[in-house]
Design brief:
The complex is a heterotetramer of chains A (228), B (495), C (290) and D (649). Chain C is mainly alpha-helical. Chain C has eleven helices and one strand. Chain C starts with a helix and ends with a helix. Chain D folds into three domains: 223 residues, no CATH class; 250 residues, no CATH class; 77 residues, no CATH class. In chain D, helix 8 runs antiparallel to helix 9 and helix 12 runs antiparallel to helix 14. Chain D is globular and about 110 Å long. Classes of the chains: A mainly alpha (228), B mainly alpha (495), C mainly alpha (290), D mainly alpha (649). Strand 1 of chain C pairs parallel with strand 5 of chain D, so a sheet runs across the interface.
């Protein structure tokens, strides 16, 4: 059995990495690297939940770690890869409204904001430092994901932004309270569906109508299937 | 229980995959809608509400009422859809192969909406709401033309993005309940029972987040931006159906606000609601003035009405709530009539733009009059029932501040002016004899506008029916409805 | 008015027509034939009678020789004013009727001037009503009757404005020149230009009557001495005589006033009226503040 | 019994509304107008008895909305206005019978017939409304139906403008009424209009202001009058008669209804109303003088008369506040009576104008002339109308103003000097307006009917068909009668005010007139054999014949007054040069026009409209179709919401 304090230290380090990954998603230009960063982020998340499981042996956390690993580290990135191959985009160069540097500055602001906000809101909730910190990271991660959504042009990148938002939500979930596992599953399902949909649409958006019809015909079965 | 329902529906949908003929598919769709209608009515009549079945199925007056509204919308939309999609396919705008997908999504939307409404568990509600978003998006992109996809993307991104915040709100709620009860829960009923013991601060925060999510679903400014594009670019039917989903958002907000009423943070919450409502009304009213596109106009007007609904909820007096609920129903009726008529005009002229409309009274007199009467109704003029609803909501709003009332009134004038302006400009264009060929306008490249587009009965009847129903409600307020609404008001803990 | 002409003539160093010239004119006119213009219409025929009728009714309102008990709303100031308005209205109409440019011009001008003088008149009579605390000319003058001097100093002010009104209403210099037939200057004459024969006679008559009535009001206001209140033969004779005297005096005054002035430009007149307005307003102010 | 009459009227009007829509035929239209005629007769009986007995009635309430009943009630005031409606309607309905047939399309005709009935019904119900909500409902329906009638010829550009403008203005007024009624509702806690005794006057300020604005807009009070001169020419003549004859009065009714419910009105209310009234009286008539479009001119004169009515109301409030009930009653009576009379003669005039326009095909006064020969009956009726609107005794226009004058003249009874001075100023304004109105109608009648035709149309004009004559004869008769029997009418209505007997006056006038006429005629007769009355040309300074172009034109007629009031008629010189080249160096041609500066529009209506327009442009630019910006908005909203929550917590 490892010393929890030590683990907490590790977790804190992971937090920092999570933030860095978010910053990378905001700023890097190459789609592939964005995707990889996202994968790393999800992996970090999984790791965090695993460590938490080590601290207080709640089986949900372990399951969660597994789920995250399965869905976000393996399935979704793989799928998006395929999409990226379909549509020949490698880079997402142009930013709207915000240049990377400014958006990085802004994201620092976001972290501060979510800190103050949560500290006001959780005033009488007495979370431990670690957990509170986690919540803050989660919220700011969500906001940063949104920032990605509007500052990047390509739909794929937006989708990734959305995904990282969702990571943030999950993180908050982990740290604020232990959600029933079913919730996690649900949100992940939802996630997968949305990713599918958006990416299909993305494919459609940058391909002429005709071939798009062909594509969507391939995909429509999924669509119905997934939604069930 | 809800699982059984889902199973049944799953079977139904599987069935839906089989048929080949359009007629059969449509029959299935309308059958489904009617089935739901029947179920709802029987539930309303027979059960002594509220009741719970199993862990997660919860029936009370409120969700049955909302379900009733939604299903009404579907029942009207189903026959309309037939005629509309047919003409779409004639035009070659809709790929016949997508037809099945269309109906799949149609039924699926209904099912998910129902499931969302009746699930007692907030999380389930949330996920099903998400699924409705997905289905609606599929309906929007059904033409798989570029701008449809664009609209669909906006819809998905904005709404789901906001919905994530709603999920944050749920997490907060869960935490609260965990703190209060030791064992966390997300079931409406349990939350309602001991909402009083929650910490107001966190409750308010969760409300704010939930509000973001469902506000986006309901098309509250500034999350409304998906709405006009979806309305304007999607085929009318899809517009209608995605419009119906707005009530889902309102429903969520209503319930969450009901949670807050017992705690100390009610005033802040109602402040948020009223502010958002006023903002929506203002934004919508101002942007309506510039619209040359009929469907966009209608879209903005539903943003405006959502704003008014929010105010009605936010005031927090029983009367206001009562009329706000009534408002929900009537708004759906009138709005559908308007959209139906707009769809007919779109078939006629191949465009929603005001410039392309010409000789409306000669070509589509019925649609024209439906539009006129519908606009009269939608701007809240008697004898249509939006008028008393408006009056009483404003009456209660004077409680908050007369200036609020004045502001709303003036903004409503703008909206009314926008409608009248549009109709005047669109309908008064008459071609005298000997006026030259109008080859330029896109509307006439599609059809020579001398010959009227034959409106199928399936499209005409629902249009007239909705309007007639609205008018009837304006002239006579049925007693059962009154009882139902009062029951809802009581259930939500308004006294 | 004959007297006025006389006085003017005297003042201008001529030997004017005899006092009764006006009556000679009337007799002559009555014996002349009537000529209508083809352009004209029933208005042309209707007006003279109507005017005279209106003014005869008016004359019941103004006590010249004695004050009867007010009955049936007779003597109501407003009715009085509006009867005059009626007369003016129809005169203006028949000015337009013949379709000659003169008539049009005349009626246009007179209506405009009337419009401008109207507030003055009303306020002046309102002032009377204020001072004498009644709406009824008879009651008013029943109040003033008998006293040598005006019962209230403010009445002097009122009578100044009344005097101006008299000038304006009867179309005398400097507002209008009754003797002229030069289109630039004439107002009243222009309107009756197309009238002839008996109709003209009637119009002239009503014109003179109007003048008489206004003079009566003025006189009764400024020096009501000798005005008797009950219908008793002796008194009536006295007051009649006194009235004749006073009227004569007033006529002389008017004559002198006229001949001492040149005709004003049309658009300088409002200023002239403002004077009258000022006086009557002043009266009311004094009445109110005192 | 009485109720039966009213219900009969409702039934008639309602069936008159639906009939033409169900059976689209000429007979149906005929029937519907016949029905409205019948209803008006019924109403006459009803209102007459109520007025006479003075016993109000409250009809059984129908449960209508949760927490609100549908109640109708009637008392003396409303009965008076019902009488007003019933007096105007017969003329209009017979008139429209003919007039409607000139509409473009069949559907248009049916619609006109139906809407006219609906319009009347709505006005009737507004007057009878028992509580605020019912009032508002029918108020809106009234506005709506009149709007659709204004838009009967929707293809013409100016009608569209007029309709839009009217719609916006009427919505504005409704909005203010909403606010006013809502605040009243808050104060009293009930929708009834009657119960204000318990409320302290201070709290009534907001309702008063709102209602004054709202009703003022609807009644066309300066400076909210601008919609009248647009809407009236656009509507069919029968409808314009209804609008300016009755609808404006309905607004007056609403205002009175409120004022009478107030136990002790405040002084400054009265002053405000009085000022508004005087202003509209003056501006209305002054603008009318300049106008050469006959219907627009009439619209302006409606503004003037509304002004007079509001002067009366203002006087009422002032005297009431100063505790002089007798005078208050007198001025109130004056106001109501003038409203009644104005309804009569204005509808008469509008109908005459309608037939003149119908006969000549133009609305421009300058083109008329000499109609007295081509259409004698119409001109005679027109003359009656003009006489009574110029307030000449013994016609009815005079009767109402007489009361107001009396009230003014007795202002000395007030013990507040400044107030008296104010009244004197108002009085002079009132008098000026009256005289100007007289001038105006000398001009209108003289130019329209007298002298030589100024255009081919008016030379070829011929008398309109009989129905259109009968209809106008009805209000004409009412005008004379209401004037002559004014004292009797008032005493019948149970209002005993100091008032001269115009009947006597009229009789006297008539008899003297007859006497004179006979005398002269007799004299002429025994001269006849000697010299017949000769017909000869007008003296045209020796010109052989008199050309119409030599006649005095309407513009020329009002010239002196324009000169006198030139400070009010501001003119502006518009200079629009055109050039051959972009550098504007080679002057090609251009036009310079001097047009009347429309004061109120340019300083009161246009600026806010512009502002709103630019704002809305700016806002609708936000919806730029880019997903990024949409998400950005959402993002910002989220941030603000988070901050807000943080602050609120």
């Amino acid at each position: 059995m490892i010393d929890p304090l030590y683990l907490e230290g590790v977790i804190k380090i992971l937090f920092v990495f999570v933030l860095i990954s978010a910053a990378l998603i905001i700023s890097t230009r190459s789609l592939a690297s964005v995707l990889n960063t996202y994968t790393v982020q999800s992996f970090l998340l999984a790791a965090v939940s695993f460590l938490l499981y080590l601290i207080d042996g709640k089986s949900e956390l372990l399951l969660l770690a597994g789920l995250t690993l399965a869905s976000k580290v393996l399935l979704i990135p793989h799928f998006i890869n395929r999409i990226e191959e379909k549509i020949k985009i490698r880079r997402d160069l142009d930013f709207t409204y915000l240049e990377p540097t400014t958006s990085l500055l802004l994201s620092i602001g976001l972290i501060l904001l979510s800190y103050t906000f949560l500290s006001r809101v959780f005033g009488d909730l007495a979370l431990s430092r670690l957990f509170f910190f986690g919540a803050v990271i989660g919220l700011s991660l969500t906001l940063m994901g949104m920032l990605v959504m509007f500052s990047r042009k390509k739909v794929i990148t937006k989708a990734l932004g959305y995904l990282s938002m969702e990571n943030g939500v999950l993180m908050l979930g982990i740290f604020v309270t232990e959600l029933p596992f079913i919730l996690e599953v649900l949100i992940v399902i939802d996630l997968i569906i949305l990713v599918l949909l958006t990416s299909i649409l993305a494919v459609g958006l940058d391909s002429s109508i005709e071939e798009y019809r062909a594509k969507i015909r391939k995909l429509q079965i999924w669509n119905g299937g997934e939604a069930l | 229980m809800i699982r059984f329902y889902l199973l049944a529906m799953g079977a139904f949908l599987a069935l839906d995959l089989l048929p080949k003929s359009h007629r059969l598919m449509n029959a299935l769709a309308s059958g489904n809608a009617l089935l739901h209608l029947a179920l709802t009515c029987t539930a309303l009549l027979t059960l002594d509400l509220p009741v719970r079945y199993g862990p997660s199925l919860y029936l009370d007056h409120l969700n049955l009422y909302v379900e009733l509204i939604t299903v009404l919308g579907f029942c009207a939309a189903a026959p309309y859809a037939k005629g509309y999609t047919e003409s779409l396919m004639e035009e070659g705008e809709l790929d016949p192969k997508n037809l099945k997908l269309f109906y799949l999504a149609f039924n699926l939307l209904l099912v998910t909406a129902t499931a969302a409404l009746f699930s007692d568990n907030l999380a389930l509600f949330w996920i099903f709401a998400e699924l409705t978003t997905v289905c609606a998006a599929v309906l929007v992109v059904i033409l798989s033309a570029r701008e449809n996809i664009d609209a669909g993307l906006k819809y998905v991104f904005i709404v789901s993005g906001a919905m994530l915040f709603a999920f944050l709100g749920l997490i907060f709620l869960f935490t609260l309940s965990a703190r209060a009860l030791g064992e966390g829960t997300l079931s409406w009923t349990e939350l309602m029972e001991n909402a009083s013991s929650f910490s107001p601060a966190l409750l308010l925060a969760s409300f704010a987040f939930v509000f973001i999510g469902f506000g986006a679903k309901a098309g509250i400014a500034p999350f409304h931006t998906w709405l006009p594009d979806a309305y304007a670019r999607a085929p009318s039917v899809s517009a209608i159906l995605s419009g119906l989903m707005q009530n889902l958002g309102i429903y969520g907000i209503l319930r969450t606000y009901a949670l807050l009423r017992v705690s100390d943070s009610a005033p802040q919450a109602s402040f948020i609601l009223i502010a958002a409502g006023l903002f929506s009304i203002a934004l919508a009213a101002f942007s309506m003035l510039q619209q040359r596109n009929l469907k966009r106009l209608i879209a903005f007007s539903s943003v405006e009405h959502m704003g008014l609904l929010l105010i009605g909820i936010g005031i927090g007096t029983p009367i206001a709530l009562f009329w706000a609920l009534f408002y929900m129903l009537v708004h759906v009726l009138v709005k559908e009539a308007l959209l139906f008529a707009a769809g007919i005009l779109h078939r006629q002229y191949g465009s929603n733009m005001r410039e392309d409309m010409r000789d409306v009274f000669k070509l589509q007199p019925r649609a024209a009059w439906t539009l006129i009467l519908g606009s009269i109704a939608i701007v809240g003029m008697p004898p249509f029932p939006l008028f008393p609803a408006k009056f009483f909501i404003l009456l209660e709003s004077a409680e908050v501040s007369p200036y609020l009332t004045l502001a709303v009134l003036l903004l409503l004038i703008l909206a009314a002016a926008a409608f009248s302006n549009f109709l005047l400009k669109a309908f008064s264009r008459v071609t005298e004899e000997g006026e030259g060929e109008h080859g330029k306008e896109p509307g006439y490249r599609k059809k020579s506008f001398q010959d009227p587009y034959v409106v199928r009965a399936g499209m005409r009847i629902p249009t007239v029916f909705m309007l007639a129903l609205a008018l009837l409600l304006g002239l006579w307020f049925p007693e059962p409805l009154k009882v139902l609404l009062e029951a809802i008001v009581l259930e939500l803990g308004y006294v | 008015m004959a007297l006025i002409r006389k006085v003017k003539a005297q003042a201008q160093g001529r030997k004017g027509p005899g006092i009764f010239q006006a009556y000679y004119d009337l007799r002559k006119l009555i014996h002349k034939e009537t000529i209508y213009s083809p352009a004209s219409s029933g208005i042309m025929r209707l007006t003279p009678y109507l005017n005279l009728a209106a003014l005869l009714v008016c004359s019941l309102f103004v006590p010249l020789v004695f004050v009867p008990e007010p009955a049936g709303g007779f003597g109501n100031v407003i009715v009085f004013l509006y009867l005059l308005a009626l007369e003016r209205f129809f005169t203006a109409l028949c000015g337009l009727d013949a379709g000659s440019a003169f008539g049009g011009m005349g009626s246009s001008r007179s209506m405009s001037l009337a419009a401008v003088i109207e507030p003055t008149m009303v306020v002046a009579f309102a002032a009377l009503a204020f001072v004498l605390k009644s709406l009824n000319l008879h009651e008013m003058f029943a109040l003033t009757a008998g006293s040598i001097l005006p019962v209230s100093p403010t009445l002097v002010l009122v009578s100044i404005s009344l005097f101006i009104i008299l000038i304006v209403e009867t179309g005398r210099l400097p507002v209008d020149n009754p003797a002229t037939h030069l289109e630039l200057t004439m107002i009243n004459e222009a309107m009756v230009l197309e009238q002839s024969g008996k109709n003209l006679a009637l119009l002239e008559l009503s014109h003179a009557l109007k003048q008489l009535l206004l003079m009566g009001v003025l006189i009764n206001t400024i020096l009501p001495v000798g005005l008797s209140t009950e219908a008793d033969a002796g008194k009536i004779v006295i007051s009649a005589l006194s009235f004749l005297l006073k009227a004569g005096a007033l006529a002389v005054v008017i004559g002198l006033f006229e001949s001492s002035l040149a005709k004003m430009r049309l658009f300088r007149l409002p200023a002239f009226y403002m004077m009258a307005f000022f006086f009557s307003a002043l009266t009311i102010l004094i009445e109110v503040f005192a | 019994m009485l109720e039966a009459l009213v219900y009969g009227a409702f039934a008639a009007l309602f069936s008159g509304t639906v009939l033409p829509l169900l059976y689209r035929s000429k007979n149906a239209r005929k029937a519907s107008f016949g029905l409205s005629f019948i209803s008006s007769v019924l109403l006459l009986g009803f209102a007459g008895t109520i007025l006479y007995t003075g016993k109000g009635a409250l009809f059984p309430a129908i449960s209508f909305l949760p927490g609100l009943d549908f109640t109708l009630g009637v008392d003396r005031l409303s009965a008076g206005f019902v009488l007003l409606i019933a007096a105007v309607v017969p003329g209009v309905s017979i008139y429209s019978l003919e007039y409607t047939e000139h509409a473009k399309s069949e559907a248009g005709k049916d619609l006109q017939a139906a809407l006219t009935n609906l319009f009347i019904l709505a006005m009737l119900l507004v007057v009878l409304a028992g509580n605020m909500v019912v009032f508002l409902i029918f108020w809106e329906i009234m506005s709506l139906s009149s709007l659709l009638l204004v838009l009967h010829d929707y293809s013409s550009e100016e009608n569209k403008k007029a309709g839009f403008f009217y719609f916006v203005m009427t919505n504005l007024s409704t909005a203010f009424l909403f606010l006013g009624f809502i605040s009243l509702f808050r104060l009293t806690g009930s929708a009834e209009l009657g119960q204000l005794e318990s409320v302290d006057p201070g709290a009534l300020t907001l309702p008063f202001l709102c209602l004054f604005t709202g009703f003022g807009i609807k009644a066309g009070l300066v400076p909210f009058h601008k919609w009248l001169p647009y809407a009236h020419p656009a509507a069919p003549s029968g409808v314009s008669a209804l609008m300016s004859g009755v609808m404006l009065k309905v607004a007056v009714y609403g205002f009175l209804r409120f004022l009478l419910a107030v136990p002790s009105p405040e002084l400054w209310w009265g002053i405000l109303v009085l000022t508004g009234g005087s202003l509209s009286a003056l501006f209305g008539v002054i603008y009318a003088l300049k106008e050469s479009d006959i219907k627009r001119l009439l619209a302006y004169s409606s503004i003037e008369n509304i002004g007079i009515i509001f002067i009366g109301i203002g006087l009422y409030v002032i005297f009431e506040a100063e505790g002089l009930p007798a005078l208050a009653l007198m001025s109130l009576t004056g106001a109501c009576f003038h409203a009644f009379n104005h309804a009569l003669f204005k509808s008469l005039l509008f109908l005459c104008a309608g037939s003149v326009v119908h006969a000549t095909g133009t609305r421009n006064i300058e083109a008329f002339g000499g109609l007295v020969k081509s259409m004698p009956v119409t001109s005679a009726l027109f003359l009656i109308g003009s006489v009574s609107i110029a307030a000449l005794p013994p016609a009815n226009g005079f009767a109402g103003e007489l009361l107001l004058y009396q009230a003014f003249f007795q202002a000395s009874a007030l013990n507040d000097p400044l107030l008296t001075v104010l009244l004197v100023i108002a009085l002079s304004g009132f008098a000026l307006a009256g005289a100007l109105a007289a001038a105006l109608f000398v001009k209108l009648f003289g130019i329209t009917c007298l002298a030589l035709p100024r255009s081919e149309e008016s030379r070829l004009a011929e008398e309109v068909p009989r129905p259109m004559l009968i209809r106008a004869a009805v209000p004409a008769a009412f005008c004379i009668l209401a004037g002559i029997f004014s004292k009797q009418l008032l005493s019948l209505a149970g209002l005993d005010v100091e008032y001269p007997d115009l009947l006597l006056l009229g009789l006297l006038l008539g008899s003297i007139y007859a006497a004179l006429f006979l005398a002269v005629r007799a004299k002429e007769d025994h001269e006849m054999e000697k010299r017949p009355a000769r017909i000869s040309e007008t003296w045209g300074c020796g010109a052989p014949t008199l050309a119409p172009s030599m006649e005095y034109s309407s513009a020329g007629f009002s010239e002196p007054l324009v000169m006198i009031f030139k400070s009010i008629y501001r003119t502006r010189i518009m200079h629009r040069p055109k050039y051959f080249d972009g550098q504007e160096s080679l002057f090609k041609n251009g036009n310079v026009e001097i047009r009347l500066l429309r004061f109120f529009e340019e300083y009161l209506y246009i600026p806010p409209a512009r502002a709103i327009d630019s704002i809305s442009k700016r806002i609708s630019r936000l919806q730029n179709g880019k997903l990024d910006s949409y998400v950005l908005y959402a993002f910002l909203a989220v941030i603000t919401l988070i901050i807000a929550t943080g602050v609120l917590v």
